[in-house]
Amino acid sequence: MTSVSMDVESVRSGHSERSNHSRRSHGSSGKHRRHPSHSRSSGNKRTVRVNMGDGESTRIGEEMIEVQIIPQDDNWGENTTCITGNTSEAGGSFQDITKLSKEFDDDVKFHCTQFLGTALAVLLASFAFFTPIAFVLLPEFIEVPGLDKISCDAACEGLLMSLAFKLVILLIGAWALFYRKPKATMPRVFVLRGIILVFTFIFTFCYWLFFGVRILAGQSVGAAATDADGFDGADFYDAEGVRQIIAGIKQADMYYKIVQYAVTFVDVLLFVHYLAVILLEIRQMQTMYTISVVRSPDGERRVYNIGQLSIQRAACWVLEQYYKDFSIYNPYLDKAPSRKGKSDVSTTFKFYDIDGGTNNSLQGRSRAIMAASARRRDMSHNERFYEELEYERKVRRRRARLLTAAEEAFTHVKRMQNEPGPAIPMDPTEAAHAVFPSLARALQKYLRATRQQPYYTLEAILEHLAVCISHDMSPKAFLEHYLQPCAAIFNNRDYRRIQQWALVCDVAPSAALADDIVFQLKNGDVGLLVHIRRLPHFNITEEVIDPKNNKFVLRLNSETSV
After folding, report:
1. What one-character DSSP code corresponds to residue 561?
2. How far is 537 from 540, CA to CA, in rounded Å?
3. Count of CB atoms situated within 10 Å of the CB of 253
4. CA 306, CA 319: separation in Å to the nearest integer?
5. Could you tell me which residues are beta bridge partners of residue 526?
6. What does the alpha-carbon distance between residue 257 and residue 250 come to, in Å, rounded to a whole number?
7. Distance between CA atoms of residues 401 and 450, nearest Å
8. Minimal CA–CA distance to 2: which of 51, 64, 40, 45?
9. Global model pTM greater than 0.85
10. CA gap 435, 411 in Å, rounded
11. For 325-460, where are the E strands, in sequence order?
């Protein structure tokens, strides 16, 4: 058995040795054993001697390795970490606590702003929806002047049926239009939706005010009571019975008016819903602007047509198109490929006259060196061209190798049929693990050449290969995930359920789009610069072809081949 003995000299100051001796005298006996060093170098340098040899013959064939230890600083105590048995190595500061509290506050603020507006809209819409139902049911529980007994004839029942159907239609329309998970949390209020909510609140308040003053207070039943009291039953056989019949008719007519009043409020809500459909959905369908979206730093560009929206909603729409149409941003591709073994030459020089020569000779040498540096700088574009050309050839070569390796690997996989055979059945995951080693090297080289290796893990590649095998996909279908740049939404490395973007604009985000407006969306190192341009008015005129001028003549000469 081989034994290794190591002699290490611990470097510490006199104050540290005196202060730490009393603290560690009781706890260091059961820990690692410390040995003093037997050799030192001259000056402030320390050496460590490591003896490596066989346990039986430690002195024969002994090797000595000397390592120089840089002496410690005088103020070493300010940056020393003390590790004890009761504390961990993790440290913190008030700045970290402030940062954590700020992140918590931002998270709470985000969730509050995300659900506060939706909660208020739901409360107002629910109150407006149950208002006509309350109008119809309140006479059952509250005493209404002039309405002692509720009676409803056929016309009243028809209105109640119409009220129920309209409420069902309104509920379905509101669910289809408003019951959606918000795509984004806007920095400002959505003006058009706020207008719809204000209209709903005003109409509901006015109807409740009229219902309370004119119906519940009994100001509209004075004439009915006067007519009933002024009836003289002397000319009739049963005056009391006739008076009761007239009172019942008036009560039925009054409840009919209450139901009709509730139906008119439902009609108002239906028109508000129609207005919401026009403002929120139909208005933005007409194309009015063309926007140009440029991504920084790689400069990828897309152009879209868009309707009349606010700036913040246009920013949300641009982000939807960005995650769908733009490819994954790879920061490793921004570095220009460089040739191996070629060192960079600095273009900044300083000249010193060491030998005490004349200024003329010094200026002459400096001019010559600067001219040579300028010529090298002028030739840098040529070097860049050849480096990029060599990089493209390298990528094409490794792509061809990867295609060949994938085709050969997929030829070994075949779906097992019902007939028995000597092959051992495997599930897609086992088949993927079996064929992956034959194409792993080529795939790894291609991902390294295209700087995509940080985006794909081994588990993700094997899972994708198993899915392709289980669905009988071709080798090119398997490699399309790596050969073609996919959309930014499929970037598994940077994908988050909540993406944080900052909107930078000189105009208020709630303002409508206009010509020549420029705003930017920022997320870390990625920036989207959006430029708005209004579509021009197309003046199309009609031009009629004269039939007399619609005739042609064939001119021939000696050199014509016809």
Report:
1. -
2. 9
3. 14
4. 13
5. 523
6. 10
7. 14
8. 51
9. no
10. 10
11. none
- Strand 518-523 relative to strand 526-534: parallel, antiparallel, unpaired? antiparallel
Q: What DSSP character marks residue 536?
A: P
Tokens of 325: 């149409």
Q: What are the distances in angstroms from CA 429 to CA 30, 132, 436, 462?
A: 50, 61, 11, 8
pLDDT digits (tens, 9 = 90+) for 308-350: 999 999 999 999 999 999 988 888 877 645 554 444 444 455 5
CB 313 within 8 Å of CB 186: yes
Please name the amino acid found at residue 500: Q
The answer for residues whose C-beta is within 8 angstroms of residue 402's C-beta and 6 or more apart is: 439, 442, 443, 445, 446, 479, 483
Residue 30 has a pLDDT of 42
Distance (Å) of CA 464 to CA 137, 478, 481, 482, 518: 61, 8, 9, 11, 41
Task: Identify whether the C-beta of residue 169 lies closer than 8 Å to the C-beta of residue 179.
Answer: no
Query: Residues, the chain, total?
Result: 562
At 269, list the tokens: 């809500």
Dihedral (Cα; 33, 39, 40, 41), 10-degree rounding: -140
Most confidently modeled of 74-88, 368-382, 493-507? 493-507
Strand arrangement of the beta sheet that strand 301-306 belongs to:
301-306, 289-296, 526-534, 518-523, 502-505
Half-sphere exposure of 182 (CA within 13 A, CB side): 17
Per-residue pLDDT of 145-189, as tens digits, reads: 666 667 777 888 899 999 999 999 999 999 999 888 888 888 888
Pair 160, 152: CB distance under 8 Å: yes
Q: What is the pLDDT of residue 183?
A: 85
Q: Which residues contact 520 (CB under 8 A, 6 or more apart)?
A: 503, 504, 505, 527, 528, 529, 530
Alpha-carbon dihedral sign for residues 259, 263, 264, 265? positive
Tell me the pLDDT tens digit for each residue of 37-66.
443 444 444 444 444 444 444 444 444 444
Rounded to 5°, angle at Cα 95 from 90 and 99: 95
pLDDT single digits (tens) 325-336:
998 888 887 764
Residue 381 is predicted with a pLDDT of 76
